[in-house]
Design goal:
It catalyses: L-threonylcarbamoyladenylate + adenosine(37) in tRNA = N(6)-L-threonylcarbamoyladenosine(37) in tRNA + AMP + H(+). By secondary structure, the chain is of the alpha/beta class. The chain is built from ten helices and twelve strands. The structure holds adenosine monophosphate (AMP) and magnesium ion (MG).
């Protein structure tokens, strides 16, 4: 079986083709704002401009599209204007080839590609990206959100702080680079709230210190506080459920300090830490294709075009999981 997947929840327009045995291709184009954050209309324009080119690239790299068994797309959650582009392209392809159109939850596909590309089986997932920050575990029929941000996502927080420091978007890599220049830390508020966390206040507090505190110290302090909070919540979740596996995914999973903290915490709990390859931590089309493949193999007949609208606020715990 072969499934083509389309990702377009935010900054990335990605196309991937997977079979049971291999990822045949994963190509993408990322929208990079000249200034500010992700402007929905501009990002959607970017996706429209690159859709055909990425589809052609995928066609050359994988196989004849006539061999495809289904088309999957990120139905949500995400930026509505961006989601619409992927949905339109996916509907057209499914119609043209007369194959099922599969709606995929973006967050769950991060977990599925994570278990496919590592040895993790039933992990507690820390999913930290530009738009989402959640701790997720599978329990009897659904993925449950055990903890999550109460305001903005961790990646968004890093990007906001980076903007005020004059760093390019996305800001995570340059904040990591600056933080690596020092071991010094100043005290900031610790943003954990029970099993949840929140980053808006921490961003404001850090922003107010710009100019008074050296940039590497600010970046290092922000990272230490924010990452310690999510790892503490992850540890609590694992302790509560007795989980012996942690999976770190989403764009912020690229951060080496965060990986180190997750690794250390797991070591101390005699648990295993799993990190998917960087290309599969960031948004990509292969993960959508893979999630589609799972659903197809489990009997998903696909969406009726009339009911294939995007779901910008679709939470992972709203999906009835019948494939585990
Ligand atoms: P995603 O939405 O999953 O594609 O992830 C994008 C987010 O990942 C952005 O907010 C980036 O700032 C963040 N990111 C990328 N690389 C790093 C890094 N090395 N450290 C921290 N955050 C990162
Ligand atoms: Mg994502």
């Amino acid at each position: 079986m072969k499934v083509l997947g389309i990702e377009s929840t935010a900054h990335t327009f990605g196309v991937g083709v997977v079979s049971e045995d291999e990822v045949l291709c994963s190509v993408k184009s990322m929208f990079e704002p000249d200034e500010g954050g992700i402007h929905p209309r501009k990002a959607a324009e970017h996706h429209y401009q690159h859709a055909l080119e990425k589809l052609n690239e995928a066609k050359q790299k994988s196989a004849d599209f006539d061999e495809l068994d289904a088309i999957a797309f990120s139905q949500g959650p995400g930026i509505p204007q961006c989601l619409d582009v992927g949905a339109v392209v996916a509907r057209s392809l499914a119609e043209k080839h007369d194959i099922p159109l599969l709606g995929v939850n973006h967050c769950l596909s991060h977990i599925s590609i994570g278990t496919r590309t590592t040895n993790a089986e039933d992990p507690t997932t820390l999913y930290v990206s530009g738009g989402n920050s959640q701790i997720i575990e599978y329990r009897s029929g659904r993925y449950r959100v055990i903890g999550e941000t109460q305001d903005i996502a961790l990646g968004n927080a890093l990007d906001k702080l980076a903007r005020d420091l004059g760093y390019p978007h996305p800001g995570g890599p340059e904040i990591e680079n600056q933080a690596g220049k020092t071991d010094e830390i100043i005290e900031l508020s610790y943003p954990i709230k029970g099993m949840d966390f929140s980053f808006s206040g921490l961003v404001t507090e850090t922003q107010r210190k710009i100019g008074d505190v050296e940039e590497p110290v600010l970046c290092n302090s922000f990272q230490e506080h924010a990452y310690a909070a999510v790892v503490e919540a992850l540890e609590r979740a694992m302790s509560q459920s007795g989980s012996k596996e942690a999976l770190l995914t989403g764009g912020v999973a690229m951060n080496s300090r965060l990986r180190e903290m997750v690794e250390k915490m797991c070591e101390q709990r005699d648990a295993e830490a799993y990190f998917p390859p960087p290309a599969y931590c960031m948004d990509n089309g292969a993960m959508i294709a893979h999630q589609g493949l799972i659903q197809l193999k489990n009997g998903d007949k696909g969406l009726d075009l009339t009911y294939s609208g995007v779901k910008p606020g679709w939470r992972p715990d709203q999906v009835e999981v019948d494939w585990i």
